[in-house]
Amino acid sequence: MTSFPQFDQNSPAIVENTMMPLFGVELQQLEEIIKSFTLESYRPRQIWHALYKKRVSTLEEITSLPLSVRNRLTAAGYSIGLPKIAQTFKSSDGTERYLIACGDGETVETVWMPNGDDGEMGDGSDADSEEAAAQSATLSETLPYRRATICVSSQVGCAVNCHFCLTAKLGVRRNLTAGEIAGQVVAVLNRHQARIGRDRINLVFMGMGEPFLNYDNFMAAVHLLVEGVGIPESRMTVSTSGILPGIERFAMEKLRPKLALSLNAPNDTIREAMMPITRKWKIADLLAAMRAIPLRPRERVTFEYVLLGGVNDRREDARELATLLRGSDLQAKVNLIVWNPGPEIPYRMPTPEDVAAFQKQLIASGVPAFLRRPRGRDIYAACGQLKRTLE
Ligand code: SF4
Fold first, then answer.
1. This prediction's pTM
2. C-alpha atoms less than 13 angstroms from C-alpha of 20 in its C-beta half-sphere
3. Is domain 84-379 given the CATH code 1.20.1090.10 in the classification?
4. Whether residue 162 has its Cβ less than 6 Å from ligand 1
5. Do residues 140 and 72 make contact, with C-beta atoms less than 8 angstroms apart?
6. Which fold has domain 20-79?
7. pLDDT single digits (tens) 116-146
C-alpha cells in the first residue's frame, strides 16, 4: 500500500490569525463597518473594489485609501485576511494541490488544474465553449492565454461519509466562511497571476466538504466570486452528494452555478452501500427536485459516477443508469470518474476495458457520457483523495 503521510498540526507554516478579516464581507456589511470610521460615502465601494477586483493581500496595497485610514483600520483589528497557501504539492501533469491555512489554524485543500479535467468541456453544457475556444485560438497568438479549473473546498472535512472518499475519514471539523471559500479561489488566482477576462477560469465546488451542508456560506461565496471577482456563474459547478433540502433551495436561486449530482449508482441499493446518505434521500426524490431547476439554454445537469471495480461498473449497471436518466426527463450528461485508490478504502479500480464498455453502453443508450481525466493522482489531488496530506 502507498505510504500516506498525515497532516501535521504543528506545521510551522500554519499560524493562527486573530485579526478580523475584511475579505468575505459584502458591500453592505462593509458600509456598516466603515460607518464607525466616519469616512466619505464612496470609501466602502473603494475597499470592496480593492478586495475583490484588485485582489489585494494587505491593507497597505489599497493605496487609494489614505495611509491614516489604513492605519486606523489596522489599529481597530482589521486585516484583509485572505487564506494563505501554506504548502504546495506539484504533480507531474501540471496540477497543483495546496494546503490552505484558515485564520484559526485549520486547513483545507484546493487544487489548480491547468487545462481543466475535461469534466467541464466538450459536452455542450458550457454555453460559450465554442466561442471561447475560437477566442482562445486568437488570443493565444498575442497573450499568455490560459484555461484552468480550480477545485474548491466548502468545509473542513466532511460529514457525509461516502465509503469511497478519503475526505470522509476526517469527519467534519467545521464549516468554512464565505470568505474562506471565495478566498481559496483568490489565493490561487493570485499565485498564478490569473486575469479574469483574459484567462478562462472554471470553478468546481468539489473539494473537501458538502457545499449544501454549508449552504448559506457557499452561496454567499458564489455571490462574491461572481459580483466581486467577476467569474461568471456559468463557469462554476457545484457538486452535491444529494442533500434534498439544499437542491430544493438551489432551484429557487436567481444566480447559481451549474449543478452536479454525485450519483455513482443506478439504483438505491447499490448507492446505499457506497453512500449511506441514500437511506435519507432516495434517488427518485433527488431527480424530482432537480427537475424544478430552470436550466439555462444548452445547460445540462451533470451526474458524476465514480466507477468502482466490481461494484457499479458492470454493463447492466450502465444499462440501468441509462434507463434511469432517460426516464428522468432531465437534460443530463454523465461524467465518469475512475476511482482513485486510497489507504484503508476497501475498493478496487475498474479495469480500462470495463470503463470503456461502460461509457460505450451509456452513449449507445443515448446518454452523453464523458471520461474525466484523472489529475494529480501522484500528489493525492485527484477526486476523493483530499485529506490534508503532506509529502
Ligand atoms: S465524496 Fe464529497 S460528500 Fe462524499 S464524503 Fe467525500 S467530500 Fe463528502
1. 0.88
2. 9
3. no
4. yes
5. no
6. DNA polymerase; domain 1 (1.10.150)
7. 655 544 333 343 343 444 444 444 444 455 8
